[in-house]
Design goal:
The protein has 499 residues and is of the alpha/beta class. Helix content is 37%, strand content 21%. The chain binds nicotinamide-adenine-dinucleotide.
Length: 499
């Protein structure tokens, strides 16, 4: 078992009130780590450190190559500790080892992108703004200041990188609050920051609960921006709290993404793609393909193939490389998912496969739910409208392309979508009609650090990744430099000032 303290101003410290909490392995209930529990006073201390590091420290004005080199040191540290981080992520979050390996490798890759971006000047001349000899105009993207990053439990290390990478690359200082359910790898990252010799206060990491450390960060007047990833319900609260001081916000929230199979799709590809879209990480992905829209002509044979494959999925110990489906994050999450399954049955959907907790002594201590598929779902049922965040697929039949688009867009969310078709032009036409931040054609889940990711509608505000993602952590400044130089040519002064 590991123990973690808070990381504030370059030092590891206990919570001001000395409280701690335990992080639990979702597979066997064992304690993974005892962790200092940040409260409001710790959030205040961390923000004060980040404020001082921003206002008086070297970080915001550091030569870009030097700032980039600090981020690169973190990339190297993650790569050097891959095996340990993978094992810890599996124990702390219940993710399967195969996924954890991808997550740790992608964390390093994503951060490497931000390290490279950190070396690029965020400044350009605004061309054509005035006549030659009148003025020169610069557009400078400057750091926002102190950023509070608040992250969920589904991809603990990756989410930490997705917040730290762009915020630091743009010259901000950060207070990061990992989820109370999965603090371990973020705290290992804190150690890497300390080892890399970052100036004190540039990165602060304070594990704790949302209602305690989280709210204190969002309300703190010294915080300039909140970057949140989590549920839409909490996102809404954060938007409202941040409005008190008009803080800048990025919200990456929930989804109920529609996966549309067209009648000309390659079935072998589309069936496996649809399963990958929903059951990756037990459905605990914001961009999960949780609504599967099938044309009437293919419906029955497609469902038959899905069910046959689900029956062959290996549910079990996430440390075992053959495991495809691991446990959910917590007992609370399992009950929530089982509640949705109950609601699907009550509203008249048909259970094609799954629907309960798997049996077997090996699984008895874990928070497992069987991969579950409902057919006969209509888009106004709760299981089609609300984000379940578990291994539950709602299959919705459609008759025409227009109907498929209408069903896909009839959602409070707009995070992602997918289309499976042999005709890429046809798929592209439909993709352009979907009101979501990402659409995959014959693919799912592939998120690139070079392309913006985020949601329309109640899936969020703002974007992560790409230049759009970095600009979320900047303020645009216009610098106007006069080139006229003499009073006599500035006739507009005459409206106020006598000659
Ligand atoms: P959550 O909203 O319960 O918690 C997310 C984070 O917010 C945690 O760190 C939590 O401690 C904190 N928090 C909770 N209440 C708070 C409050 N009042 N003030 C400040 N902070 C508070 O979400 P979760 O259960 O951890 O994660 C699952 C959700 O995350 C899903 O809805 C999923 O769709 C979403 N998610 C979205 C994306 C995306 O990029 N769009 C990515 C991953 C997860």
């Amino acid at each position: 078992m590991r123990t973690y303290q808070l990381f504030i101003n370059g030092s590891f410290v206990n919570a001001a009130d000395g409280r701690t909490f335990e992080s639990i392995n979702p597979f066997n209930g064992e304690v993974v780590a005892t962790v200092a529990r940040a409260g409001a006073e710790d959030a205040r201390r961390a923000v004060a450190a980040a404020r001082a590091a921003f206002d008086q420290g070297p970080w915001p004005a550091m030569p870009l190559a030097e700032r980039s080199a600090f981020l690169k040191k973190l990339v190297d540290a993650i790569n050097a500790r891959q095996l340990d981080l993978v094992a810890l992520e599996v124990a702390d979050s219940g993710t399967t080892i195969r996924k954890a390996k991808e997550d740790v490798a992608l964390s390093a890759r994503n951060l490497n992108y931000f390290a490279k971006m950190a070396a690029q000047p965020l400044e350009s001349e605004i061309e054509g703004l005035s006549k030659p000899g009148f003025s020169k105009n610069l557009l400078c993207w400057e750091p926002v200041g102190v950023v509070a990053g608040i992250i969920p439990w589904n991809f603990p290390l990756k989410m930490a990188i997705w917040k730290l990478g762009p915020a630091l690359a743009a010259g901000n200082t950060v207070v990061l609050k990992p989820s109370e359910l999965t603090p371990a790898t973020a705290m290992e990252l804190a150690q890497m920051v300390a080892d890399a010799g970052f100036p004190p206060g540039v990165v602060n990491i304070i594990p704790g609960y949302g209602a305690e450390a989280g709210e204190a960060l969002v309300r703190d007047r010294q915080v300039d921006k909140v970057s949140f990833t989590g549920s839409t319900a909490v996102g809404r609260k954060i938007m409202s709290m941040a409005s008190e001081t008009l803080k800048k916000i990025t919200l990456e929230c929930g989804g109920k993404s529609a996966n549309i199979v067209l009648d000309d799709a390659d079935l072998e590809l589309a069936v496996d793609g649809a399963l990958y879209a929903i059951f990756y990480h037990q459905g605990q992905c914001c961009e999960a393909g949780s609504r599967l829209l099938l044309p009437l002509s293919l419906h029955d044979s497609f469902v038959e193939r899905l069910v046959e494959k689900v029956r062959r999925m290996t549910i079990g110990d996430p440390t075992n490389p053959v495991t495809e489906i691991g446990p959910l994050i917590s007992q609370h999450q399992r009950e929530r998912v089982l509640g949705y399954i109950q609601s699907g049955k009550q509203e008249g959907a048909s259970l094609a496969v799954g629907g309960s907790t798997p049996s077997g002594t090996e699984l008895s201590k874990g928070f497992f739910v069987e991969p579950t598929i409902f057919t006969g779902v209509s888009n106004n049922m709760k299981i089609a409208r609300e984000e379940i965040f578990g291994p539950v697929l709602s299959v919705i039949p459609y008759a025409t392309e227009d109907e498929a688009v209408a069903i896909a867009n009839d959602s409070p969310y707009g995070l992602a979508g997918g289309i499976w078709s042999a005709d890429k032009e046809r798929a592209l036409r439909i993709a352009r009609r979907l009101r979501t931040g990402t659409v995959w054609i014959n693919e799912w889940h592939l998120i690139s650090e070079k392309a913006p990711f985020g949601g329309y509608k109640q899936s969020g505000v703002g974007r992560e990744f790409g230049m759009e993602g970095i600009k979320e952590y900047t303020e645009a400044k216009h610098l106007h430099i006069d080139e006229i130089g003499v009073r006599s040519k500035k006739f507009w002064y005459d409206t106020v000032v006598p000659k």
